[in-house]
Specification:
The chain is an alpha/beta fold and about 240 residues long. The protein is about 45% helix and about 20% strand. The chain has a single domain (about 20-55, about 65-235), classed as Tubulin/FtsZ, GTPase domain (Rossmann fold). One of its GO terms (biological process) is microtubule-based process.
């Protein structure tokens, strides 16, 4: 990370407030699978049950150890439920369907669980052109709605892989659209990079190179993790 990136990160953290909103976008198969672990952890940290209700609604708000459903990641509804400020999108439905039928099916806004009918076949060009054309209108409409629900938007986080067709190609198109409409809002990219021994397709290195060249222009902060290194840490 260079001096310019460090300066931006320091200024971003200095201006960050607990009451500011963060929108999390999970794209592609890898991004959707990341959402499983992320929202399980976010709910645990903020004291939220899988159905969106608070674990300890009568906890003392002054107690620093009490779980706090802060508005950064959740929006409280009229029924005292907390709904994640998130969009989960994949070009084919099988992985997102696990959320729709899983333990956390009552947590999310179903309109923000977006799926297509066919995948990008691990092809950057297919994800960027063919699939993105079909997926962008509904996805960007969900992003706009989440932005409109925010009073003090702090950042938009995008979770995806560099190796998949949707994770690389469709994410690039989405980030271009977000950067065009919300240029002043920080875009934070959290990505999984393909490892030499963990490639699911021979074209993953090409997808990664093409994706890197595009998101380099649209992301303000990129947090990059190596897939192979993650496997070593978890085994």
């Amino acid at each position: 990370m260079g001096p310019e990136e460090l300066e931006f990160l320091e200024s971003f953290m200095a201006e960050f407030h607990d009451d500011g909103e963060i929108i999390n976008c999970f794209i592609g198969q890898c991004g959707t699978q990341m959402s499983f672990a992320c929202w399980e952890l976010f709910c645990l940290e903020h004291g939220i049950r899988p159905d969106g209700t608070m674990i300890e609604p009568d906890a003392d708000p002054e107690d620093p150890l009490a779980p706090r459903p802060v508005v950064s990641f959740f929006k409280e509804t009229d029924r005292n439920r907390f709904v994640p400020r998130t969009i989960i999108m994949d070009t084919e439905p099988s992985v997102v369907d696990e959320i729709r039928s899983g333990v956390y099916r009552g947590l999310f806004n179903t309109e923000n669980l977006i799926t297509g009918l066919e995948d990008a076949a691990s092809n950057f060009a297919r994800g960027f052109y063919s699939c993105a054309t079909k997926m962008m209108p509904k996805t960007m409409n969900s992003v706009r709605k989440e932005v409109e629900k925010s009073d003090n938007l702090q950042a938009i986080c995008i979770y995806h892989s560099f190796g998949g067709g949707t994770g690389s190609g469709t994410t690039c198109k989405l980030m271009e659209a977000i950067d065009s409409e919300y240029a002043k809002c920080p875009k934070i990219e959290l990505t999984v990079y393909p490892g030499q021994e963990m490639c699911g397709a021979v074209v993953e290195p090409y997808n990664a190179v093409l994706c890197s060249s595009t998101t380099d222009e649209t992301a303000d902060i990129t947090v990059l993790v190596d897939n192979q290194a993650l496997v070593r840490m978890c085994t």
